Amino acid sequence: MTSPRPFLLLALLLLGYLLWEQWRTDYGQPSPPPAPAVAVEDTVPAATVPGDTPVAATAPGDVPVTAQPEPAAAGQRIVVTTDVLRVEIDTRGGSVVVADLLAYPKQPKQPEPVRLLDDSTTGYFVANSGLVSAQGAPAAPDHNAVFSAAATDYAFAAGQERIEVPLTWQGESGLTVSKVYTFERGSYVIGQRQEIRNAGAAPWTGNAYRELRRVPLVVDTRGLKGYTNPEQYSFTGAAWYSPQHKFQKFAFDKFKNDPVNIGVVPLPEGERWAWRDWWLKRVKVPADAGWIAQVQHYFFAAWIPSGNEASEFSRAELPNPAGTRYLIRAVAPSTTVAPGETRVLDARLYVGPKLQSTLDDIAPGLSLTANYGIFTFISAPLHWVLDKLHALTGNWGFAIILLVLLIKAGFYKLSEAQYRSMARMRKVAPRMQALKERYGDDRQKLNQAMLEMYQKEKINPLGGCLPMLIQIPVFFALYWVLIESVELRQAPFIGWIQNLSAPDPYFVLPILNAAAMLLTQHLTPMTGMDPTQAKIMKFMPVAFSVLFAFFPAGLVLYWATNAILSLIQQYIITKRVEAGETAKPAKG
């Protein structure tokens, strides 16, 4: 893989792939004009959740939901501190508006943690929940209602494993709602239950909903350092999952695009939408175990409804003077609470890192938030192996080196064929040069003479490229593993490399990779190569050492390790071919 020609091809493929992904993000699907209104018979009035422009609608058979005025009262902040989270809950709506991840500092060896949820203007990202009443039913607390709290500060006491934070809302019609959050030691999962007690004379009917709202994440894309910043290539946006329809994701700039079909699961045959707006993406998901999420590099937040709920998911773009906000919402099935009855509605909120080894234990498909794209079927097993190697070595850098060794061993036969073909090409290089001088510009005779020589010497001109092409999907898959794995974030290696997710501070790894490339050039046949192409090949080690100076050290460690191992393997095979040894296979 470090031979200049295949390396150049691989680099161009990688660059083209990244440019294609960026182009798709920026220009892939231009916003269409607003679609005309859809006329549907027997419609029910459109529904809204307070504080929104319309973002949901009732379908035939659903209970219509009525809007309520947004209250002006401000809420208190309840601070909950666990061993892994510091959370702020606003009594207005009982919303989780701040979440600090205490085990993940923004910068290495600095006390300030990553703030995932945030109600500031520039970083707005909150988790709301509430109830909406059916028409004619008593009022219920939505995400703007003001709750009362018994305390404003909670933390684990010695030996305590669980904290409960109760919030209470009392309605005038006798309806009382308690929203109780639960926190467990060592967990990024926040439990929530809404206890609805009806002490009034009329039944209450309505729906529970949970939602995540945020503004786009600001990512530095300035200059070469910004171009090589993995954060800009990692998916940021909304996502949802159901066992029937699997993982679906929606970039923020696609919320207005393709008003009917993009990312929307078709409704079951015979069902109709009661109402549709051109910017609305509403989908009814007949799922027993689904979830909604807002995802970014390394971290995400997700609402996980109760496993027996066939939730209805929707997404919308909400105009706001401080910046457009993007919403994804899960609405639970209609619930009726008779007079004197109490009903409990459960859900869970995950706020934390993409720890793939544990996420699927929380909810099916949750590990898919570590977005590997089309290479997931390769990347997921590679991450599993990398995680096992880390358990063996206790160091993510050594785990990367061992993973490269395993990949090289797995592709040894392919690499051997590649290097043997190149070694044979190198061995006959003087004869190829003589043929070129003999036939000059007569390309037809030159090609015929070279073909005869290839047949006589049993050389396959494509033998050096085809094995490498087979390995390219593995390379891309491992690339995504290394940039998406939160386990490698700020992970130390040895000596001068104390952060595998940041560039090598002394450029040792890029220089080692460049040295391996330079040495590889001496083993690679250049006969017949265009002079301009030859100059480009000679310049490549310098160009890539400059480029790799800005890549995360974990990625460059993979490249450099692979380059050195490939150089050793190619050197041994080349020497054996030149010495006429063909029977005994080389050991790499």
TrEMBL record:
Subcellular localization: Cell inner membrane; Cell membrane
Alphabetical UniProt keywords: Cell membrane, Chaperone, Membrane, Protein transport, Transmembrane, Transmembrane helix, Transport
Protein name: Membrane protein insertase YidC
Quaternary structure (record): Interacts with the Sec translocase complex via SecD. Specifically interacts with transmembrane segments of nascent integral membrane proteins during membrane integration.
Gene name of the encoded protein: yidC
Membrane topology: Multi-pass membrane protein
Biological process annotations from GO: protein insertion into membrane; protein transport
PANTHER family: CYTOCHROME C OXIDASE ASSEMBLY PROTEIN COX18, MITOCHONDRIAL, OXA1
Chief location bin: membrane
The Membrane insertase YidC/Oxa/ALB C-terminal domain, residue ranges: 396-575
GO terms for cellular component: plasma membrane
Residues annotated as signal peptide: none
All residue ranges annotated as the Membrane insertase YidC N-terminal domain in the record: 77-385
GO molecular function, one term: membrane insertase activity
Recorded family membership: Belongs to the OXA1/ALB3/YidC family. Type 1 subfamily.
Protein's organism: Dokdonella koreensis DS-123
